[in-house]
Amino acid sequence: MSKQHVAIVIPVFGDLGFWGPRSLEAHRSTLDLIVPPDTEISSYISKGGSLYSARNLGASYYKGFADWLIFLDADDTLPNDYVVEMMKGEGDIRVPRVAYCRDGFVQSPVALTPLPLEQGNHIVIGAMIRANTFFDNNGFRDLPAYEDWDLWLRCYRRGAKIGYVPGAIYHADDSRPDSRNKIPVKMARQLIEIISSGKELCPTTQLSETAASDLQGTLFR
User: How many domains in the chain?
Assistant: First the structure.
């Protein structure tokens, strides 16, 4: 039986002086992950001109190679049993609970209210998604916010199954006041209309066909 490969993409864009050290902290948390049986894990810090392009570029390195993708924001971390718990779950998109972190203190984990996806996003960015599901839906689109919700909803509308994994806890930083999701109300309403209606935008970043043998900056265990 071949091993399932879980690829963790840590996107970086903007001020590298600020985000570079944080991405290394996020990356260090992946080095302590417990590797489940019949599974291998790799992690990659991906730099791009924007958040969506950094995520898409990092994912493209694993096209045709990884079975699963996890997107770990540069200011977030994963506990060491995260992948173990995720591999116990079911579904094409596996949803963890979230523990918000502020000033080094990790709060009690919560499950985001599972409303219908058309009404709002209850799936954190660190959900684990089948690689084929991600690529079949062309990855992230260029949006100023909510691009993760947009991805989950497009996948769901095309038949992706959503499963909930309460044993997996994603550690999300909640200390920065300038979160991209804290945007003006008018812009938020426009984005919600675009995403919930499924309106088309400009074409998404093309995902490259980079072969697995060309991977650079990737750590395998």
Answer: 1
